[in-house]
Amino acid sequence: MLRSLTTWVLVGQRLGIALITLVIVSFAVFFATEMLPGDVAEILLGQAATPEAVAGLREAMGLNEPAFSRFLGWLGGLATGDMGRSYVNDIEVVDLLGRRLGNSLRLAAVVTMICVPFALTCGIAAAMWQGSLLDRAVSILTISVISVPEFMVATLAVLIFAVWLGWLPALSYGADATSFVALIKAYAMPVITLTCVVSAQMIRMTRAAVIETINTPYVEMALLKGASRRRMVLRHALPNALGPIANAVALSLSYLVGGVIIVETVFNYPGVAKLMVDAVATRDLPLIQSCAMVFCVSYLSLITLADVIATLSNPRLRQ
Amino acid sequence: MIDHHDTPRGLRLPRFGYAFNMTGRIGLAVILFWAVIAIIAPLITPYPPGEIVDWDYFGPVSKSYWMGTDYLGRDILSRVLMGARYTVGISLAGVTLACAGGIVFGMVAAVIGGWFDTILSRLLDAFNGIPSLLFGLVVVAAVGSSIPVLILTLAAIYLPGSYRFARALAVNVNTMDFVTVARARGEKTGYLIRAEILPNILGPVLADLGLRFVFIVLVLSGLSFLGIGVQPPHADWGGLVRENIEGLSLGAPAVIFPCIAIASLTISVNMFIDNLPKKIRDRSQ
Amino acid sequence: MSNKKPTNWTGRDDARVENAIRRGASRRDLLKMLAASGVAVGAGSSLLMSASRAVANTPVFGGHMKAAGWSSSTADTLDPAKASLSTDYVRCCAIYNRLTFLDEFGQVQMELADSIESADAKTWTVKLKSGVTFHDGKPFTAADVVFSLNRHLDPAVGSKVNSIAKQMAAIKAVDDLTVEIELEESNADLPTILSLHHFMIVADGTTDFSKGIGTGAFMMETFEPGVKSIAVKNPNYFKDGPYLDSFEYFAITDNNARVNAVLSGDIDMAASIKGRSRRMLEGQDQVYSSVTSSGNYTNLNIRLDMEPGAKEGFIEGMKYLINREAIEKSVLRGMATVGNDQPVSAANRYHNSELAPKAYDPEKAKALFEKSGLLGQTVPIVASDAATASVDMATVVQQAGAKIGMNFDVQRVPSDGYWSKYWLKAPIHFGNINPRPTPDILFSLLYTQDAKWNESQFKSEKFDKMLIEARGALNEDLRKDIYWDMQEMIANQAGTVIPAYLSNVDALSTKVKGLRPNPLGGQMGYAFAEYVWLDA
Prior knowledge:
The complex is a heterotrimer.
Chain A: H1 2-35, H2 40-45, H3 51-61, H4 67-79, H5 93-128, H6 133-147, H7 150-164, H8 180-214, H9 217-224, H10 229-258, H11 261-266, H12 272-282, H13 285-313, H14 315-318
Chain B: H1 21-44, H2 76-112, H3 114-129, H4 132-143, H5 147-174, H6 177-184, H7 189-223, H8 237-243, H9 253-274, H10 278-281
Chain C: H1 11-22, H2 27-36, H3 41-55, E1 64-69, H4 86-95, E2 100-102, E3 108-110, E4 113-118, E5 123-128, H5 142-151, H6 162-165, E6 168-175, E7 178-183, H7 190-193, E8 218-224, E9 228-233, E10 246-251, H8 255-263, E11 269-270, H9 278-281, E12 287-302, H10 314-321, H11 324-331, E13 336-338, H12 362-372, E14 378-384, H13 390-403, E15 407-413, H14 418-421, E16 428-433, H15 439-446, H16 461-472, H17 476-493, E17 496-497, E18 500-509, E19 512-513, H18 522-525, H19 528-531, E20 533-534
Parallel strand pairs in C: 1-10, 1-11, 14-15
Antiparallel strand pairs in C: 2-3, 4-5, 5-7, 6-7, 8-9, 9-10, 11-18, 12-16, 12-17, 12-18, 13-18, 19-20
């Protein structure tokens, strides 16, 4: 009873801290945006931005209020669940963001489902037979794969599978797919590219963390007591290595939500990373802020999850 | 770089000695090779790296142009040699700053704990929550683009990740009996960090550093597309791949050789780190 | 690719050949004509193939076309006054109409207008076509024209052509199908001005442009800013066509990805590919490219009112130092014509063809820099990916400078915010000017004393007087003479170095027929959707 109460207090604390972090990020993003040259009216007019034209457009867009008070207004709206309207096209930010976030999350989910089991298996296997041919092959392969720039992998994939072989479409419009096969085809290339980028880090971190725990005295003790190698790794070493592994996985996955701009560009996949780039380029404050909040929330939830796993897996930290 | 099998196979858990030294040495040799190239590059480039030497473009490997020509008809060999300066220099400086900062903060946070830990962790989380694109643009808008700015930007982008990783490891070690014993002995925080925590997290932290180095090399090329990369006519290796990417479908050496350069450097850095003598890594035991 | 063209071949030449074919010229006549213009016969026959391809086929109805432009963002709009990216132009051309448009030879043709006439070039009477309806069934009347043109004068609209529209002092409806436009001063170019993309006609009182209700060949079905749009055929269109049942338009920002998408057959057209990418199309039977020269240029601006441009001899030195041939051949891969430092390109009939481009002469440049006292100093040049090819052009200047002891510090800055922070402001920077149909528009936007975009701060009383004089001159020869003199003044006195006029290259699937070059820009002056068809 008492224990569950403390758990709730801890969860509450965690949420409170997350909320404060979000507010800090929001302010930081606001000041960052303010430092960029030009405002939304100037950017929209581009080369046609004469002082009168800018003043007129600002007036018409309701941007005459100081930026800071507009920002506070937006923040207030957010508290009631209203993300505001985009300055640039006057569409509800929720509508703009919703669909593209769906796309991004779908892609991220597919990559995660493939990547995490694959990476953990490779990493643990490499650690278990440390120094073996398998271990070395995995090490060299992972480093080689990530040493090749992401845009090179993506372009090469398009060239081979779309232009030369004609097996897969060069563009990925997952939403247009009419059949399951078409859906798989549409997602195949972005998923291949991202798997290359993301799994390497997970593999290496898993391997390093497992090896480190194998080297600790109590695992050695277990080994001396006659535990089998596999049993030793899975029962004793792995639980202790879970914390760092979870952290590495969380960092990689948070990249999948907002950092895949190159993949979105090359495969013309309408996700949130491109949306954020657009928003920054047009100085569209409500949209920038909303995107930043989405990235931040996904990042915070992932690392919180990682922290929870780390805490639960280490009996000493649990108390 | 394929492993050489002259290492003793019997040692399954090499704790002492220089078991994997050969691989490590090869790695070190390649790193040193590129470092030397970076220093003497202006003396050995056959052509000025910005000079258009050929009316044709994406030219093949030839006697006059050993690595072919790029999209403008410039000599790729000269550009790769000069690019070594930027890639090796900026990436090493960036990764060193990011990891050193991250590890120190991470260990301090883990050992001191409490509010200090919470505040530092949340602040860095918040920083990580700001998209790096926006961060990069703001930096350039505020201070312009130069080599020190590039290094600091890269370090700032990667510090929070490094911090989180080091802290997670240090927190684990911090709960170990020998740390508790040392603390009971009345050892100071500085000693705990130096003598008890650092040696025990060094392995994974170094593995992480190797990987971060790879990422920094690649991110550097991405920054040039925000207009904050190395200034023309020079380019880092990632930038060379990027500006010549159209040559890929033509099989141009202009895109292949910079890739090979990147791979050789990043793989050697990781080979070197993975094969550091265990005595260095486990000296506390 | 079969139609490998000689580098001095322009879209105008294409047009000339195609026109001859239409008139019924034989293959022999054509080759003779080409030989006269200095084209080798081998190249000539491949040119003919591409030209006949555009003419010889009969249109086929039906089909869905997918095309990709190069830039798109959440700022995509269906409001013609705000249109700023080529993507916007393409969509607006499909769903709206203008009063006039320019055909492939640069001649004004009537679209929604039946006639545009004036006795003094000051008061213009526009007669409108009858029986035209908007997509929602509303009939098209003079009120729509008055509303559409007046919008540009309201600063709250944020029109891109506000400065051009300002000369329309009064716009009023005489009757249901007649509009009278009164100009501040006489301007014989009004029919051409009305063919600008921004002067599309929308329905009277429109405030919500997300539906895109116009009189055009297509009706917007879905429109997601920054993602894509799908438009379907307007069954009640007042002209013949369109041939396509529907067309989908979006942007693939990465040049390489765009080319690959057309090669793999995922799209039927990739707009504006880089000159060097044409090599990827060679030997591919399923694709061809269409080249348009419309007078777009990237220029090096040296401000006359700031150091170092204010130093006598510096600007002239730069004009001799810039290696135009290297820019045309290496940077732009032949998809350009060498420029002579003035904004009226060879695609325009008022182009001063006797004004020779300054030859690359480093020694002369060196002497001029010495005279200005700047030799050996470090001079910053601001370039950005925002201005097409400017970073590479800057590198060419930098290398040439290094050889004569001038140190140019190329500063590549982010494209983001370039136009508001660096363009017009930095002492030496690059600009990028889109084609305009008349010298009058170019000069009054870029070179008069009160010009909004006076890139080098060139000020001349005499120049401004000549502009007014030419504007009112209804005599073609007199106008031409004045414009020629003005071009010479700019080339020799202004601080704008215009090394080359860029050509636009669109890559197309061979299924796409009927696409012809247009002086208003690539993709058939952005209006291809209405005119092309897909071969079955």
